[in-house]
Amino acid sequence: MDEKALSQLLKQVKGGQVSVDDAVGRLKDLPFAELGYATVDTHRSLRFGFPEVVLGGPKTVEQLLGIVGTLVERKQTVLVTRLQQEKAEALLARFPKGEYHPVARIFHIKQGKRKAGRVAVVTAGTSDIPVAEEAALTAEAMGAEVRRVYDVGVAGIHRLLRRREEIQDCHAAVVVAGMEGALPGVVGGLVGIPVVAVPTSVGYGANMQGVSALLTMVNSCASNVAVVNIDNGFGGGFYATLISRTKGRR
Amino acid sequence: MDEKALSQLLKQVKGGQVSVDDAVGRLKDLPFAELGYATVDTHRSLRFGFPEVVLGGPKTVEQLLGIVGTLVERKQTVLVTRLQQEKAEALLARFPKGEYHPVARIFHIKQGKRKAGRVAVVTAGTSDIPVAEEAALTAEAMGAEVRRVYDVGVAGIHRLLRRREEIQDCHAAVVVAGMEGALPGVVGGLVGIPVVAVPTSVGYGANMQGVSALLTMVNSCASNVAVVNIDNGFGGGFYATLISRTKGRR
Amino acid sequence: MDEKALSQLLKQVKGGQVSVDDAVGRLKDLPFAELGYATVDTHRSLRFGFPEVVLGGPKTVEQLLGIVGTLVERKQTVLVTRLQQEKAEALLARFPKGEYHPVARIFHIKQGKRKAGRVAVVTAGTSDIPVAEEAALTAEAMGAEVRRVYDVGVAGIHRLLRRREEIQDCHAAVVVAGMEGALPGVVGGLVGIPVVAVPTSVGYGANMQGVSALLTMVNSCASNVAVVNIDNGFGGGFYATLISRTKGRR
Amino acid sequence: MDEKALSQLLKQVKGGQVSVDDAVGRLKDLPFAELGYATVDTHRSLRFGFPEVVLGGPKTVEQLLGIVGTLVERKQTVLVTRLQQEKAEALLARFPKGEYHPVARIFHIKQGKRKAGRVAVVTAGTSDIPVAEEAALTAEAMGAEVRRVYDVGVAGIHRLLRRREEIQDCHAAVVVAGMEGALPGVVGGLVGIPVVAVPTSVGYGANMQGVSALLTMVNSCASNVAVVNIDNGFGGGFYATLISRTKGRR
Amino acid sequence: MDEKALSQLLKQVKGGQVSVDDAVGRLKDLPFAELGYATVDTHRSLRFGFPEVVLGGPKTVEQLLGIVGTLVERKQTVLVTRLQQEKAEALLARFPKGEYHPVARIFHIKQGKRKAGRVAVVTAGTSDIPVAEEAALTAEAMGAEVRRVYDVGVAGIHRLLRRREEIQDCHAAVVVAGMEGALPGVVGGLVGIPVVAVPTSVGYGANMQGVSALLTMVNSCASNVAVVNIDNGFGGGFYATLISRTKGRR
Amino acid sequence: MDEKALSQLLKQVKGGQVSVDDAVGRLKDLPFAELGYATVDTHRSLRFGFPEVVLGGPKTVEQLLGIVGTLVERKQTVLVTRLQQEKAEALLARFPKGEYHPVARIFHIKQGKRKAGRVAVVTAGTSDIPVAEEAALTAEAMGAEVRRVYDVGVAGIHRLLRRREEIQDCHAAVVVAGMEGALPGVVGGLVGIPVVAVPTSVGYGANMQGVSALLTMVNSCASNVAVVNIDNGFGGGFYATLISRTKGRR
Amino acid sequence: MDEKALSQLLKQVKGGQVSVDDAVGRLKDLPFAELGYATVDTHRSLRFGFPEVVLGGPKTVEQLLGIVGTLVERKQTVLVTRLQQEKAEALLARFPKGEYHPVARIFHIKQGKRKAGRVAVVTAGTSDIPVAEEAALTAEAMGAEVRRVYDVGVAGIHRLLRRREEIQDCHAAVVVAGMEGALPGVVGGLVGIPVVAVPTSVGYGANMQGVSALLTMVNSCASNVAVVNIDNGFGGGFYATLISRTKGRR
Amino acid sequence: MDEKALSQLLKQVKGGQVSVDDAVGRLKDLPFAELGYATVDTHRSLRFGFPEVVLGGPKTVEQLLGIVGTLVERKQTVLVTRLQQEKAEALLARFPKGEYHPVARIFHIKQGKRKAGRVAVVTAGTSDIPVAEEAALTAEAMGAEVRRVYDVGVAGIHRLLRRREEIQDCHAAVVVAGMEGALPGVVGGLVGIPVVAVPTSVGYGANMQGVSALLTMVNSCASNVAVVNIDNGFGGGFYATLISRTKGRR
Questions:
Q1: What's the rounded Cα separation, in Å, for the pair C13 and A12?
Q2: pLDDT for H155 beyond 90
Q3: How are beta strands H78-81 and H106-109 bridged, if at all?
């Protein structure tokens, strides 16, 4: 049942051709009926206050040009993740207002103004920076003020200690770490804000492409640590920014 | 170096017995030095606005009476988790103002008044309720208003749909699920708030004591889902309440 | 919005107090609104032609007496699975028309008459029989004619060969096997009907509580084999009976 | 012992050169004896009503030309799966009546007319479509009427809800999902037909090349879900079509 | 079709009531037909020269008394494995000629005389002895001469070296080891006979109930090592004795 | 202590320069002393009756030319496994009497005459043939008479049944299978000889590069099955031939 | 060949009854020959400067009384690990000079005087103390001076920081941690001495009985961390003490 | 708070502008305050007596030229690990005093003189040599005297026995092994020094990229074995050298 049919039914109720009881009977099943007018994008945008993010990696240049074009027309912010260099160039040629960040592999066109809180993005080592930048740029695109605290892994804990206040002062922290993945638990013990842990596949051997780091983080004894998927910088940045915006909702 | 020694050194600087340069040299190492006056509880309490929670399961009755007694004297809220019935009875005999919740295995003494936001606690099945109650009671102890939305698993999705608004209206949701663990991803797709996913060990066979549910949740394609350890109801409730309080921090 | 409110709205449309357009606007959101009158049991029964099965294991005697009583009043067939002996005795005392099958741990009260097709239940060894009986009794409760072909494991393949026709003549086969779990693939190669493979936790060592058998079955090179969870005899019997009834739907 | 030798023996029995007892002795071992006239293809075709499907990937062009040629001569339907583009071109040059579907990597020559029931093919995301198309084209080649319901993953559950009836009206559904793999359980809860779940290797990190999705599906709490191997679109389509044809067998 | 029916058919061929062609047609399907006279035990005994071994653990005393009684009547050797003490006592009361070995949990009644070759049974530690004794007593029951070389693990390799000749002089060696499971590879490097490796669940932590030892043995760089299941002493003894008897077959 | 030093010591004992007690003292430590004259190759050849096999894959052409040259000079049989085509050509140019088998990737120079028993090499599918040929050619190089029984997987069990006798008549069987890995257990149930199971990495998805097939084989309920590493055709052929030669040792 | 036989042979060489060449031939094989006089204890004791430690758990009281009695007679230090309370009492009754430590489950009789270096034993939480005490008492029994630094886990890192110097001043540190297992890497980053990491099975859910903690430690990015088995406190204490004694060896 | 600010505060205390109590208050938080002057390199060098090692693999040539240049200026020893050939050539062109070892992929510039103990580096096979050389060159760069004992795997144990003394005479041994990973346990049983086990990813099939070897080593029953990550030759060499230098610390 689409909007037209619904309107039709209501007119028949109004005109007396269909009784109220019959109409109730047919509308009861609406949850499972064809709606037609519903669209993913609109609902999502309403729910999160941010348009659907485009996963660029597996899409063709043609598909990307189409999707981005539609979003630009609707004056919506554009965020394309995991985008390869060559596809980015095609997008930049068509949409010169966009920016491409090769380390984070993110393409971004700012439209309108968004506002979120302060998000710290912390990494254990320099090899974790691509994932961290994916988180940081996502957060910035969503309106957050991002503080980057990079290369403060647990093998030299004092590097982290000197920057504790900077992190504590944020609304949430994304902590990115590969190998042993111990950093989020240590940060969680030092600060009183929610920590979103992002394991990375950086490492070798018993690291098993990040599974070891994931397990470490899930087992963290700090109660303010929750975990997203391996290498999921976008998810980490999104989740932390969502937390930082909780304020606006009350 | 404890507080007394520090005071002593500063007096010597003041009196000229120790030069400023010498004092700098000795204080440079302070981060790694014995402080003496630092205590875990105090710092933790300052950072999170909530005193350290006591894991009751492995402790003896004597240890528990001691710890709880100290907290009560300091007028701090008491929360003991994973507490067995027989130990709870010993605590209730000594501290009649406390309450014991046998399903959640939580002992609680309210002191003072705390304030946090609204937290939804959602479960897939009735077997997940003990873990969910651990989350709910933790959140309530921390001052949150909790909405319980139980037994709305994905095998009958309309049960969840009718309660969507109730969840959406909270600041964060704890979603508890065993077996296939699909519920947090579905809730994440329906609401625009941070979802804290808690896998449970409910299930059998290929569930592998909750590892399967954990993997499902970590792989969720909804961006507003982060995960804590299997059966960690306390962690889920703590994290969601922390999010709900973020408002207060700005 | 519950049925009463819906009826109220429609009356207002009929009476002209609410315009058709306004009513469309409010009904558009119905998919996510509170329905109130929806109940799990009824819908499930309509969808599958069989009432919801009760998982007996974790429920108390009181809960079971209540649930079974309700179903009996509504003249619905009762099927309680994984039911312990002592709880079964309490049910039998109250509902003397019921039957309890201790090997399969199933309690059953037949009401009305159901009709489904022919289902073969095949096991590799005698230790797999409890799981197989759970499948067989489920299928019988759903109206299927069940053929039991037990103890025909691959270590003595001719035992299976002599009974091939008996299996082939069914609409679907449930094949139950532990240890190496090879039987479903062999049966799948011999007969031209859908095979539902049920791995069991029978075995030891590298069997890893049935995970090894599960993997074997998932990797089967026979195209007419699909798999359910370890020890899930109920699921296997349910699925095969569903297939055997497909006929009635066209 | 082949057919000729068997005939010879029987003639000797008839002529009295071999006694009945001696013949019984020799025929007792027949189950394990060389038969000679048996051929895989024929038997399979008889059992399933569909000729053996050719796995194209690892075969050379020469082998494929030979096998397809033989099938064409015998007026049998041809279905080659996992076929690379360049090999497909060689087949098309020789057999211009064939069709090649590059997304599903299937080569197909229709011969005669087959009849099966209605099969829904459902996917969570667009990246699952290659596996879904392998299922859909297999089902069509076997005579099924296929309904494609693509991109209705659980992160936006209303997309699925509006198409529920379309799926419910089929005899069986193939549900294809990667990442968290939650879709088959949700579909299973919505419809009353057998669901064949196909996990895909789409995803990253803790998805572990589809193992995580496989585990989710095996643990589904919906009783009408059974599972085949990761990325096994062919198997899913074959199994669902087999179910849809069950009618013909009674 | 059983022996009687087969005889009947042949008589009809002889008498001309059934033509040779018709008889060929009916006998062609014999491989998949009901044979009736075939029995597992007899065939097995013929194939291996040893009657079927009875797995005692999951059987009831009544079942065991019945099975053992039948074997004794037929003058066959009896071997019951994994038999609990209390069931063994019931068997000994009825069959006083039997022997029970509590460490290996084997019950044995010798009947007739068997002959096999020399088998070494080697263990890493004293905790592996129950599994080793299961192997040794199985081999002895099958007629092998067994040499026990116990407690010669790799942490004190010279203990093994002094007994090398004793092992080398056998036809096959069963090497039983838990924890790291390194012994079979070391023995394989020292002797020129087939080594049957039996991992045990002895150990703790990363041993994972013997899985670690199993992996070690499967990865052995010695080419004369093959592996059976964890704790499968019976299988190890059976396989090694089979090798030792190979001589008789040529 | 090398041979010369030992001889020297004994001469001193003989001549009275060293007392018997002193010599006993020094010789007691001999187990851990330098032997010097021991060489790997010679001993291995003596132990197994077959010279050390050369793993060709990781070695350079220069290394291979050197090693093979030495073996040829000593009139020893040459067997190089896992040898790439281009390296094989360099070996053939220098040693024209050698043969290279590209499917099995084995290079072989026959020298002298070896004698072993009959070995069956059985495969489930055609994709398993490279591993099977590695086994078969190894067995032939060691003097065995090999019977190839290929493409008799469990999805069409009658293909295997017609060739049972052929396998039964051998001294040992190497059974090679990927995917579900069920064939070795089925063959083990049909024949009364030792079966050496070789899992292969053929398959996809839940096969996990052969780990699933390995687990199936280790869990086989047939007692005459032992297992070697995934894709270890050489090991399977070596072990089976060793069994077939056991005769010669008594 | 035992010591007597060796002495006999040398006398024959001296007396000329056996030629030097013949004697060389017989002695060449000595490493692999039966020596008779060799005993594990003696050699081990020579190698490590510490007698073999007795694993008490699986041994009977009779076996333990025998072994300990022998060691006491030889005036050797006695160390029995994983000893149950009731067995300990039997040992104390016979050997009143011994001590039993119920938390560490160690029985110890001091004999003679040993000297080793300084060993720190560090734990993350109080639940790790039993394993830590096993390490500490082992180290003390071997002559080390032990410094216990307990309950300094990463969730409150400053507790560890104030005790850094105490650890740094030792020759080696045993760091014991369950759950996420991050502590050894953090300690490794703070001090310049070898760290022996001992994972414990303390934790739940994704901890998987300590496997998660083990993986964390193996992946540590601190280069001065090496790992022993889960819950292997004895091994950790032994290894660290061995390091602390290295000094004496130069 | 950096050094300048600290100095400033102390001057104010001295001058009376700040009271002692106020200064104590501000310095109490120092553990978590900004230090500023601390640098990783210096501290690390002080703690271990060896400058930070540079992981060359993921760095660009420009980054490497910069880092190495700085170290050379400061007259510090340079050690770059996992360095590709082409980057090494760029470094050699600029720093002709450096050496590049292509097998171990290490670049090294010796500056000053270091002194450590004796370290044995032992390998099972020739394929393990790259990892072993990484260990050996690291140890030599740190001042150790290295003894290489290569290709002494357990499949030919006498090769190892002849070299036992050579290993025993060192302060620590690095034992490198892939496939089954049994060598460290065997070496541990033969010598009385700490053994650092390095599993390698050499092998195939059930080796699972070295995980199997890692598990073997962690389960070793020799108490003088501790383990580092798969293929971590650098870590093994570093740890063993640290042990060998323990002497210098007392």
A1: 10
A2: no
A3: antiparallel
CB contact under 8 A, C43 and B158: yes
pLDDT mean over H200-227: 91
**pLDDT over threshold 70, residue C34:** no
**Nearest chain C Cα to A10, which residue?**
C20
Q: By the CB < 8 Å criterion, does F202 face chain E? A: no
What CATH fold (topology level) applies to the domain C118-246?
Rossmann fold (3.40.50)
Q: What is the pLDDT of residue G35?
A: 32
> Which string of DSSP letters, residue by residue, matches chain A?
--HHHHHHHHHHHHHTSS-HHHHHHHHTTGGGS--SS--HHHHHHHHHSSPPPEE-TTS-HHHHHHHHHHHHHTT--EEEES--HHHHHHHHHH-TT-EEETTTTEEEE--S-----EEEEEESSGGGHHHHHHHHHHHHHTT-EEEEE-S--GGGHHHHHTTHHHHHTSSEEEEEE-TT--HHHHHHHH-SS-EEEEE-----GGGGGGHHHHHHHHT-S-TTEEE--TT-HHHHHHHHHHHHHGGGG-
Residue B192, chain C, CB below 8 Å: the answer is no
**E204–G contact, CB cutoff 8 A:** yes
* Residue D1, pLDDT score: 46
B66 CA: distance to closest CA in chain C (Å)? 36
Residue H47 pLDDT: 54
Residue F132 has pLDDT above 90, yes or no: yes
pLDDT in tens, G127-160: 899 999 999 999 999 999 999 999 888 777 878 8
Which of D158, D168, D201 is the best mutation test for A, with the most CBs of A within 10 A?
D158
Neighbouring-strand partners of residue C233: none
Provide, rounded to the nearest whole percent, the portion of chain H with pLDDT above 70.
85
- DSSP secondary structure, chain B, as one string: --HHHHHHHHHHHHHTSS-HHHHHHHHTTGGGS--SS--HHHHHHHHHSSPPPEE-TTS-HHHHHHHHHHHHHTT--EEEES--HHHHHHHHHH-TT-EEETTTTEEEE--S-----EEEEEESSGGGHHHHHHHHHHHHHTT-EEEEE-S--GGGHHHHHTTHHHHHTSSEEEEEE-TT--HHHHHHHH-SS-EEEEE-----GGGGGGHHHHHHHHT-S-TTEEE--TT-HHHHHHHHHHHHHGGGG-
The pLDDT-based confidence of E110 (bands split at 50, 70, 90) is: confident
- Which of E159, E164, E205 is the closest to G230 by Cβ? E205
Q: Which residues contact E17 (CB under 8 A, 6 or more apart)?
A: none
Token pair belonging to H164:
């036992």
Whether F42 has a pLDDT exceeding 50, the answer reads: no
Whether residue G238 contacts residue A224, with contact meaning beta carbons closer than 8 Å, is answered with no
Q: Where are the domains of chain C?
A: 3-109, 118-246
Overall average pLDDT of the D232-249 stretch: 84
pTM for the whole thing? 0.83
Integer Cα distance of A195 and A174 in angstroms: 6
Total Cβ atoms within 10 A of residue F57? 14
- Predicted confidence at residue F227, as pLDDT, reads 96
**Cα–Cα distance between G117 and G243 in angstroms, integer?**
8
Q: Positive or negative, the Cα torsion across F55, F56, F59, F61?
A: positive
**Is the Cβ–Cβ distance between A77 and A50 less than 8 Å?**
yes
- At residue B128's C-alpha, the angle toward residues B126 and B130, to 5°, is 100
For B58, nearest residue in chain G (alpha carbons)? G127
For the ranges B199-203, E27-31, G65-69, H231-235, which has the lowest average pLDDT?
E27-31
User: What is the rounded average pLDDT for all residues in chain A?
Assistant: 84
Higher pLDDT, E174 or H157: E174
- Report the pLDDT value the prediction gives residue B35, as an integer from 0 to 100: 33
pLDDT on residue B32: 38
